[in-house]
Specification:
six-stranded mixed β-sheet; elongated
Length: 798
């Protein structure tokens, strides 16, 4: 049996030119071993494919050569390699010659519906999200159509109806896919292993381990199907033979079918001597390595570039560093006239390696792999490279290639992903989220059925506080990939924000669904536990958060969230302190961990340790309001007000745009105006000073420091001269304080300065909000409402 098949591009072979004998070509795929453990492996699909390839090369009418047969088995049958092989077949298909596509493996779809296509699962296809990493039948049908339009005699041999645990098991995914494969497109011949409602059988009794269909297909083409002994097999003979043998051998459980073509015309010629004659010639060809021969015949400089190209591919130096990457060496090789025959091979090696590296990261993400999710969270450098990888492949293959739009979609997706992660690392930057959203909307135009893009849209809408749109996006992702745990977790997290705590059971349902689909999904346990903490169910929350930590020890959040859940329990405070410390060790800029650790030290009375931790947080972030507030209170208790004042002044010096230190300086001594002096001198724009003053006013108000509140609002008025909004803040404050005269004066200024649209809103507020009830008995109030708010009904007591 032939073990290695050499596949060369047509340019290297010099075939397909005018007047040449049309030569057949075949792409043969057999996958028994699937990378995703959740997809049931098959027993003999790879061997079935290998045996069929061996048959073509040894008895295939003497015209199938190793250079015209491409075989992809198990780990070699990634989606990138399968699509590359189809592109190779389309480029080399000769008019009038057979173009055979053989597939043995799993076929499935995730959701059953008239608008959904089936998929052939590649080696690296995940257990869901088929639209991203499986070969869609729409893609395959377009390939068949293109071959037919070139005049090739297309033969599709499908053995994709195997039993197993798949995403579409509950909706008849295998059956629906088989029915789609059976549909006739043009004039292609389809040889199918069984009916859509049947399963293909595998067993050791056929050829010491084969599929029944594949075994008898080869036996029939070798001559057993030639019932009239004319050394030719037509489709009618082959179908009768397959149906009889496979039906009987499987106890009527499997019935092959052949569709398309003229069944009475010769399909396969038998040459009794072709096998032995061609076997020898094929072996002689296989002893030679075309690529090595081409390289060996080239000058030393060409050989060195080829070796460097191969080494760069192996070491993952694909696009960088400039001048020493696989791309750099490829660019030199493709214009090297000494290696012109290798251009197609080298381009395919580069594009497949680029795509495989991207798709492995995607597959790990879809599997919610903890390491991959952690790499995303910290924006690993590879994610910045992926858009370049995809863009480079798109440039190499060109817009006419059927992979092109899919590549653009993935490129837009990763470009948007990087922007979102940058926005998160910067503390939540809406402008970056908006840019990311534009990329994802572009991506979804080219891949509308891609659940992973809809999920990413949901995350972006969530960060932009567009919650209803986030809900629609997550629902779409769940509908497209109902067995994918990640959007269910995200939807559950969104539900906690959309609905009040009493509706937590709604979110709880989706958290449980996510965990059911992915029992080792650390993030789902963590988010579920956090939801239970918010709902007051701390005991159950603790169990889930401990499980999250066990499953995701890479996540700093896992340590932090468990610590937050338990630190108030006296018997577990010490454990929580250790967890907070571990968070800080792993992620020194995790500010919330400092706050939690300081509070935990306070719980056990170790105030000096608490202060030390709070000071660490302030050193990292001078605007850390909680830490500054705790230091103020603890220092005041110990008579260290001067030290607190020095700390606040230093924090203001380091971060004059942050309001927290000004607030604590004011609260430290409410009778002094140090905070206002510091704010007046701050090197920040006047408008920003006004915003800081407004924030301080609210901080002072909630601290019951009403004199400070008034002063801060008045500063905002001074620094936003001629604007209505700061006067409106004052009117609200004075109304709450029942200072009617001041409230009315601020109300008048608000209405005088407001533009028409804002004035209407202010009028509605003055007329309807309860806080303004003390004003409504005033004649001045009624007079202003009649003058400025003619559309409002004045509901007052005379």
């Amino acid at each position: 049996m032939l073990k290695v098949l050499v596949c060369l591009p047509l340019l290297a072979l010099g075939v397909g030119y005018a007047g040449a004998e049309p030569l057949p070509c075949a792409v043969i795929i057999g996958i028994s071993d699937y990378q995703d453990e959740a997809i049931t492996d098959l027993s003999y699909a790879d061997r079935d494919a290998r045996e069929f390839a061996d048959f073509l090369l040894t008895q295939g009418e003497g015209t199938f050569t190793p250079q015209r047969v491409r075989v992809l088995l198990d780990s070699a049958a990634t989606l990138a390699r399968i699509q590359a092989a189809l592109a190779w077949q389309l480029a080399g298909a000769d008019a009038g010659a057979k173009a055979i596509l053989y597939f043995a493996g799993h076929g499935d779809l995730e959701t059953k519906g008239d608008d959904r296509q089936g998929y052939l699962l590649a080696h690296d296809t995940p257990k869901n999200n088929y639209s991203l990493l499986a070969l869609g039948l729409n893609y395959l049908n377009a390939h068949i159509d293109s071959l037919s339009r070139k005049g090739a005699q297309v033969v599709v041999i499908s053995d994709a109806c195997h039993s197993g645990s798949l995403a579409g098991s509950e909706v008849g995914g295998t059956v629906a896919t088989a029915a789609q494969i059976m549909r006739q497109l043009t004039n292609e011949v389809k040889i199918l292993s069984c009916q859509p409602y049947e399963l293909a059988q595998e067993d050791e009794k056929w050829g010491e381990g084969r599929g029944a269909f594949s075994y008898y297909l080869v036996e029939g083409l070798r001559g057993d199907a030639d019932r009239d002994n004319n050394q030719e097999i037509d489709l009618f003979e082959l179908e009768n033979y397959l149906q009889l043998k496979v039906r009987d051998e499987t106890d009527r459980a499997q019935h092959p079918e052949i569709t398309g073509g003229n069944k009475r015309v010769s399909f396969f010629r038998i040459d009794p001597e072709a096998g032995s004659r061609f076997r020898q010639s094929a072996r002689r060809v296989l002893r030679k390595d075309f690529v090595k021969e081409e390289v060996a015949a080239a000058p030393k400089a060409s050989q060195r570039n080829y070796v460097r190209f191969q080494r760069a591919l192996q070491r993952g130096r694909l696009l960088l560093p400039e001048g020493k990457s696989a791309l750099s060496y490829f660019n030199a090789l493709k214009v090297d006239s000494n290696l012109i025959n290798l251009r197609g091979i080298l381009q395919e090696r580069l594009t497949v390696t680029l795509l495989d590296s991207v798709q492995q990261a995607i597959r790990a993400y879809l599997e919610t792999d903890a390491n991959e999710l952690a790499q995303r969270e910290r924006l690993d450098a590879k994610y910045r490279q992926f858009p370049r990888y995809l863009g480079q492949v798109a440039a190499l293959i060109g817009a006419q290639d059927p992979r092109y739009l899919e590549l653009l979609a993935k490129q837009s997706y990763f470009s948007g992903l990087v922007l979102r992660l940058e926005g998160e690392q910067a503390g939540g930057v809406d402008s970056l989220y908006e840019q990311a959203l534009a990329h994802q909307l572009s991506a979804v135009k080219n891949a509308r059925e891609a659940a992973y893009i809809h999920n990413e849209l949901g995350l972006l809408y969530l960060r932009l506080r567009r919650l209803e749109e986030a809900e629609v996006s997550f629902e779409r992702a769940m509908a497209l990939s109902p067995t994918w745990a990640l959007p269910k977790n995200n939807y559950a997290s969104l539900a906690r924000r959309l609905y009040a705590i009493e509706y937590f059971s709604f979110a709880e349902f989706y958290f449980l669904e996510a965990i059911k689909l992915k029992p080792d999904f650390a993030t789902a346990y963590m988010n579920y536990g956090n939801g239970l903490v918010a709902a007051g169910r701390r005991d159950t929350a603790e169990v889930l958060l401990r499980q999250a930590l066990k499953l995701g020890p890479e996540y700093a959040d896992a340590y932090h969230n468990l610590a937050v859940a338990i630190y108030r329990q006296p018997e577990k405070t010490r454990e929580a302190i250790g967890l907070f410390q571990e968070v800080i060790r792993r992620k020194p800029d995790y500010l919330e961990a400092y706050a939690g650790l300081g509070h935990a030290y306070e719980q056990i009375g170790e105030l000096d340790s608490a202060i030390a931790v709070y000071l660490q947080e302030v050193a990292l972030s001078p605007g850390a309001g909680f830490a500054l507030g705790r230091v103020r209170e603890l220092y005041a208790t110990n008579g260290k007000s001067n030290a607190a004042r020095a700390l606040f002044l230093e924090a203001i010096k380091k971060a004059p745009h942050e309001p927290a230190a000004y607030a604590q300086l004011g609260l430290l001594d409410s009778g002094a105006d140090d905070w206002a002096k510091q704010l007046r001198m701050a090197p920040v724009p006047m408008q920003q000073k006004a915003r800081i003053a407004r924030t301080l006013a609210f901080d002072f108000f909630f601290a019951d420091q009403f004199e400070l509140t008034e002063n801060a609002f008045l500063l905002a008025v001074d620094w936003r001269a001629g604007q209505a909004a700061p006067y409106n803040d004052l009117s609200r404050f004075y109304s709450r304080q029942k200072q009617t005269k001041k409230a009315l004066r601020a109300m008048r200024k608000t209405l005088q300065l407001a533009n028409a649209e804002d004035r209407e809103n202010y009028c509605t507020s003055f007329a309807e909000e309860e806080r303004y009830l003390p004003l409504q008995s005033s004649k001045q109030y009624r007079k202003m409402m009649r003058k400025y708010c003619e559309n409002q009904t004045i509901n007052t007591k005379e």
